[in-house]
# Entry
Amino acid sequence: MNLSTADALTTDQETPRWQFAVGSGILGWVLDAFDFFVVIFLLDTLAARFGVSKADIVYTLTLTLAMRPVGALLFGLLADRFGRKRPLILCVLFFSVITVLSGFSPSYVFFLVMRGLYGIGMGGYWGIGASYAMESAPRRKRGILSGIMQGGYPFGYLLAALAMQFVAPVFGWRSMFLIGLSVTALIVVFTLLAPESEAWKLHHQPSLGKIFGTLFEHAGIFAYLLLVMAVMSCLSHGTQDLYPDFLKSSPWLADRRVLGMKLLFGLPVLYNIGAIVAAPLFGHLSEKIGRRYAIMLALGVSLLSIPAWAFGSTLLALALGSYFMQTGVQGAFGVIPAHLNELSPDSVRGLFPGFVYQLGVLIASPAVSFEYTLRNYLGYPWALTAFEGSVILALFFIFSLGPERLGRNFRRVEKG
# Structure
């Protein structure tokens, strides 16, 4: 590379058509979440279709989550070796085809295999999509775009809840596995229109051996970020996964409606609106006060919401508590794509953030079972409070001592 080219790459000039790269990252994470949450809403339907217990269908969710690190490793390696565009297209086509096959599975075993394969695609997309979006976005917009991308997950959850209310009753439950195909086509078009990442062109390694070598050289920051993502996963799954069951355990809520919908659909729609708004808000705020302080501020919102979230004695109190709980949770997560990418080594940015993210999810996977067991001893409100209160306090400590590289230039060759 000649000197003039290197100098050009160190500037903060906007990448032409960067919006398409960011758009593909955002849409892919929305689609990932939608395709995952439709299964959660179809537990009873799928169990009846395959003649198995609901627990058997729940197991497919566990398998999906367990396979996510495999996808992050596989597609992350491809992204660091061959660029962001082609692996991104391959990943979205892969998990979209698997989603369709899931909906038309002839047997439970076939469905189980499909959901395991889906986990590989789901795990692969976040790492490539986040690195491609953050590398392509202007530095001054990195925070808010980080939030918009991460907000795609609760947005996908919200869309799944709405589709179950208004699409599935008209077109049947299998339509839930077909809706995403139009989004898949749009992602492919966006990615084809977007340029390849200039940061990848500058930093990419010539072989897989070099990529693994770089990964091991940065074991310290990998271990720290793995701790961050494991505890952050406890934060999100601990507030989301059991909350519908907690609501069902209160008989006085059985006939209540929220936003004109049954409570178990309406309340998730409501608190996911808070999550969708909060992620870009705190992402943008992180450009002003720093990544760690923005995350800790969001965690403070969640901590203050616990009394209404867990002990609310009226529907209004529970609605406000759950709204502000997810405002804080997803506000903190909205900063994560930018924060992880800024702390990742340049030459393995396709692999590093996604692999850390998905391994953290895997490590935290027993947390919900622990929280549920805690309920047997303390009751639901105190179990939720004890678990999430401890998680939030632990995160305050972790982020207060952690590193930060706000506004890092991905197109500069760093020495030393």
User: Anything to note?
Assistant: The chain has one domain: 16-196+207-401. The chain is about 80% helix and 0% strand. Strands lie at 257-258, 261-262. Confidence is low (pLDDT under 50) at residues 1-11.
